[in-house]
Amino acid sequence: MLRIGSIGGVDVLVSTSWFLVAALISFLVSPRIEAAEPGLGVWKYVAGAVFAVVLYSSILLHEASHALMARRYGYPVSSITLHFLGGMTAVEGEARRPRHEFLIAVVGPLTSLAVGGAALALWFVYHEGLLGMAIVGLAVSNLLIGVLNLIPGLPLDGGRLLKSAVWKATGNVHRGTIVAGWGGRLTAVAVIAWPLVLVLGFSARPNLIDYLLVFVMAMFLWTGATAAMSHARLRQRLPSLVARPLARRTLTVPEDLPLAEAVRRAQEVDAGSIVTVTSGGTPMGIVNEAAVLATPEERRPWLATSMVARRIEDGLTLSADLAGEELVVAISRRPAEEYLLVEDDGTIHGVLTTADVDRAFREAGH
Fold first, then answer.
1. Was 66 annotated as part of a binding site?
2. pTM for this structure?
3. Which residues bind Zn(2+) (predicted)?
C-alpha cells in the first residue's frame, strides 16, 4: 500500500493493483485518444494514464463522501483505499441505526451521479478533441458507477441500502445483511451470464479482456456477499456471549504462598482459577493453568505461586458486565489466555479464559 495523503484526517491509500488497472485503462483508451488527437505516438498512453488518474480522483470523491458521512455520525474511519475494482472506505464498527446505514451508503452513488451529471453538462459546452473525449469518458464512467452501485446486493452500496430497508422493516440488522448478501450473490451470477446475453441477444462477440473483467467482478461480488453473510451469522451468536456466567470461581492467595498450598486450597473450595494478591488485597497476577500442570508436584511446595502467574497488565482486567461484541472487542484488543473480571466497585468476580469464550461461542452456533 502507498499512502498518498489524507482527507479530513483519513489516510488515502493506493494498492499496487491500481497501477495495473491504470496501465490497462491507458492501453484500452489509447485508440480513442489516437482518433481524437492523431499523431501523439507514445504520448497517447501518457494521456490514457492521466485519464486513469482523473477517473480514480472521481472515485476518491465517491469514497470520501462515505467517509465524511460516517464521521458525521461518529463512526471512526481508518482509511480510504483505491484498488483494482474501485475503492473501499474502512468504517470501524457496524452502523447503530438503519438511517445511518442508509445515509452513509447512499451518499457515494449520489456523489458519482453528481460528478457524472456535471461532466455531461460540461460536455454540452465543450466536446471537441482530446479534452472533449476525456469529459465524456468521465461523464459516462461516473454515471455508470453511480447506477451500478445502486444495485441491491452486497458489497455494493445498493446492498447496504437494501440491508438498511430490511433492518428498518424487521428490526433485525443480521436479517438485513443476509438478504442483501443474497442480492449480491444473484448479482454475481447475472454478471457471469452477461457475456452469454450479449452473444445470444445482441450477436456481440466479447473478447478475452471482457471475459476476464466479468470473471473478476463476479468473484468480487460473490466473495464480498458471502463474507458479509458469514459475518452476520457470527454476529447473531455474539449476544449469547456474556462474561459474568463464563467466569471461573476464583481463589485469591498471597504472592509468596507455595504453589502446592495454593493448588490444595483451590481444590478444597472447587475454584477453577487462582489470583495472586498483595498483602493489601490488590490483584497482581493470574495463575496460568498450563504452567501449573507443567510444574512437577515435587517442586510445587518450594515454588512461590507468583512464579507461575501472569502479571495483570493493562487490558487484562475487564468488567464482569461485558457481553456480545463489546466482550469480543475487549479480548481482541489485548489477546491473552486469561482475564480478571471485576465488579463496578473493583472487587474480583472471577477469571475469564479465552478457551471458555471459544467453547461458548461454538456451542451458540449449534
1. yes
2. 0.71
3. 62, 66, 157
